[in-house]
Amino acid sequence: MTDNACEWRALPADFPPYQTVFGFFSRWTRAGVFNRVRDELRRAIRLRAGRCPNPVAGVIDSQSVRAAATVTGRSRSYDARKKVPGRKRHLVVDTFGLLMMVMVTAAGQPDRDAARELPARLRMPHPQLTLIWGDSAYAGTLVERAPPFSAPHSDQVDHVGSAGDLLIG
Fold first, then answer.
1. Which of 15, 47, 58, 108, CA to CA, is 20 to 30 A from 77?
2. Cα(114)–Cα(142) distance, rounded to whole angstroms?
């Protein structure tokens, strides 16, 4: 169904007209249905594995991806480090690798700048989250914002691993 984006006019023949499918998709997206389904599936998987249903630790990283020519100039740029024109997606997953949040920025925006929004955006749906692992690209701003985001006595930042990864919590 997807190439670089959802090709609504190329849906399989047994689907309703693309306008109907897109209408449901739009309404469900605005209503947060997909987020609720994702969160409930994550809870069920964690419970089945004998873990707390709500993650207390997460991992953050980003990936630069090429954007289609139709993507507006404001939301795309050039990631000089990875030599990719397009967008950058920042993913936060729990310790099982299950998705918690996605944030999309222009590819040229440094990870540390994108990290300015992440603590507040994660805090609302995941108030129990007290630990975030991220590579050194997230160091500056995320480390500075870690103490108010994390538990009262866990404002320690440790460098772990040979790549300069950070343990925030």
1. 58
2. 9
Neighbouring C-beta atoms of residue 13, cutoff 10 Å: 4
Residue 69 located in a structural domain: yes
Give the three-state DSSP class for 49: coil
Number of domains in the chain: 1
List pLDDT tens digits, range 133-163: 888 777 665 555 554 544 444 444 444 444 4
Residue 48, in any domain of the structure = no
Distance CA 161, CA 143 (A): 17
Provide the whole-model pTM.
0.72
Q: Residues 74, 76, 77, CA angle at the centre, nearest 5°?
A: 105
Q: Which residue has the higher pLDDT, 3 or 39?
A: 39
The verdict on residue 68 lying in a domain is yes
